[in-house]
Amino acid sequence: MDEYLGLSPDHPQSYHYFMHKHLFDHVNFRPENINILNGLAEDVEAECAQYEAKIKSYGGIQLFMGGLGPEGHIAFNEAGSTRDSITRKVSLVQSTIAANSRFFENDESKVPKFALSVGISTVLDNSAEVAIIVLGKNKQKALSETIRHPVDSAFPSTYLQTHGNVLIVADFEAVESFQSKL
Ligand SMILES: N[C@@H]1[C@@H](O)[C@H](O)[C@@H](COP(=O)(O)O)O[C@@H]1O
């Protein structure tokens, strides 16, 4: 769904690397069927346009699977991402940089400040199903807002309320504070 801008595919914190290490290296997907945004693209706009077009050329995505950022981002759609946003270059907000610094030796200066990401429209308008995996106490507030907050670009994950087929997979820690009200 997204990739840090400026990280090579073999950088251990790139999403390329993550996906290969944890999934593609263990299954027999054909390489030509693996599509991840290129964080080293010279022409960023063309890279994003091609990615969006490729999704549409296949008639959409059967299953979008992602996580939830501390302030409600899905993929790297930070606060302010609009309903009609598509694959594009995005700036990461401070809370995302702080949260993701754990993967960069806890040094915020090493976290890329930009990324390429599918947009809200890319997810909502092109997927049969969306699955969001939410783990840990630090996601309690974000998960609660995702479900309860009125749909608002200030909290992009609230857009998921408008998709007809969303599955949220959460652990007890992520739902602890409000599970009795569900
Ligand atoms: N770009 C990713 C997001 O796509 C992901 O949703 C988020 C939460 O990930 P995790 O569930 O590992 O905390 O992390 C990053 O910011």
From TrEMBL:
Species for this entry: Kuraishia capsulata CBS 1993
Xref: Pfam families: Glucosamine_iso (PF01182)
Domain of life: Eukaryota
Keyword Hydrolase: yes
Similarity field: Belongs to the glucosamine/galactosamine-6-phosphate isomerase family.
Record EC number: 3.5.99.6
Ranges for domain Glucosamine/galactosamine-6-phosphate isomerase: 8-166
A single GO BP: N-acetylglucosamine catabolic process
GO CC term (a single one): cytoplasm
Catalytic activity, reaction form: alpha-D-glucosamine 6-phosphate + H2O = beta-D-fructose 6-phosphate + NH4(+)
Enzyme class per UniProt: hydrolase
Designated name of the protein: glucosamine-6-phosphate deaminase
Keywords of this entry: Hydrolase
